[in-house]
Amino acid sequence: MLSFASVGYLYKQRNVVECTHEDVAGEWNMTWALRDLKANGGIWAGVFIVLVVTQTLLCAMSVSMGVNSYYQGLSAKTRDPVKSLASALSLIFLTVIVLGCLVIKQTLQASIRQRRQGLALLSLLGATPKQILVLTLLQVMILVLPASLVAVALSPALAGRILDWYSAGMRIPVHFAFTWHGFPRSALTGLAVGLATAVLATSRTLRDLGKMTPVRVVRRAEESESIDRPRHGRGLVSLFLGLALLLLPLPVFAYLSRNGSGSLEPKQVQAVISAVGSGPLFAILLLLIALARSGGPVISRVTQLWTALVPSSSAVWRIARSQAVARSRDTTFGSTVIALTACMFLVGGLLAAGGTSTIAMNKVPGIENVTSGGTLELLYGFWAALLVALVGVIAGFAIAARDRDLDLALLSIAGANPRQLTAISILDGTIVMTTGIIIAAGGTGLVGLSTAMVYWPLIHSLSVIFPWQFFLICGLPIIVVGSLATMLTARPALMRSPIAILQGAIGE
């Protein structure tokens, strides 16, 4: 039997969508889509922010690569520096694509699952899975269209600036002026990546939701657990590929160790450098894909473990911890953690790989004065990818706002005073941010250890460099900002009557 809250939610959705049986049977139009976008404005706002930023960066980066190719063919004087810049841009563009796809996918999944009761209502009224998919895709297209228009409008101005930004960092004496040569093709290429990701993420999430009966979905309206338990094997392929890529130079170094004679020949030095190359970056991206595909149990377990180690007997902390542990199994919580992990792990992992490689390479006979990029260089180079990840964190907070408001209302009715509710909202952000940083630190340590193992045949010692300063300098402000963000987003709920919030949740 359905609970009172679930029945109330059904009535609320009925009033929102004003959907009769005849509507469900075939009279689908944009009216329902627009009404649902308005009714769930906070959820869809997070999706729109992600789409605008990701589409803009993908389009601008793609156009900048097209402009770069144009200058490469002008004269022999600019050919070599432009080729170097093209190689760097390709690597950065790939990173933006991967992180953009992950953030779009996670954000759309979280937003759709936040609305799963409304989708279940449509099924109860007679909608087929295909009709629900078409209607949801229509809503996504409504948001993708203005996001793409913004991207196309801004990309001409951003493309030249992006090229000048990287050419200045690489000390390339070439000024890039925007040209319309190849602009439509380059712009459409960048937009197509974001559009394809949005469509695939929507279709896959709705397919997972379709495995459950509508009544079962509605009955779980009050649960924070995700609709389906992630299968542990989803990300194993990406995980194994990432680890294999990290350890790929190991046989090369073993060969050099067996055949070396105290010092390495220039060809051997070249083999060492090419074996290491950009492997850690691709490995980090594969590990992030593995986390996004099957990281639910990891995120939940890490949240449980580290919060259990906090020596606090405060009732406020116990409540905040229990709520966070329950939410850690939900897709919305996971989308925020994964976006933050991507941001920290990208820089931390590269710092660990670069620092460990530098220490090891300087111990190899015949190789001296090896250096690696620091934190500022990585932030300078991967700013676009990091911006996409940070926007994903912001979107996750926006999508989860309704659940936090409902929890605070229930706690208020249970007897919590405004000061305690404010403290709980602050701790909610603290726990989310800390979980993401801990997972990123664990992945960084794994990358550093794997890099050190690769050099074992050459130097016969393990010297792992962990970027503690980066995690302290960047991690603490992120935790503070996250805590303040949850407090600020919860303030409107604290000013409202908890009865009014509950009435809105159950449809009265």
TrEMBL record:
TM stretches of this protein: 43-65, 85-104, 132-163, 183-202, 236-257, 269-291, 337-360, 380-400, 421-448, 468-488
GO cellular component: plasma membrane
Mode of membrane association: Multi-pass membrane protein
Keyword Transmembrane helix recorded: yes
Broad class of the protein's primary localization: membrane
Compartment(s) of residence: Cell membrane
Keyword Transport attached: no
Domain called ABC3 transporter permease C-terminal: residue spans: 91-207
Pfam family membership, one: FtsX
UniProt keyword terms in alphabetical order: Cell membrane, Membrane, Transmembrane, Transmembrane helix
Record's protein name: ABC transporter permease
Native source species: Bifidobacterium apousia
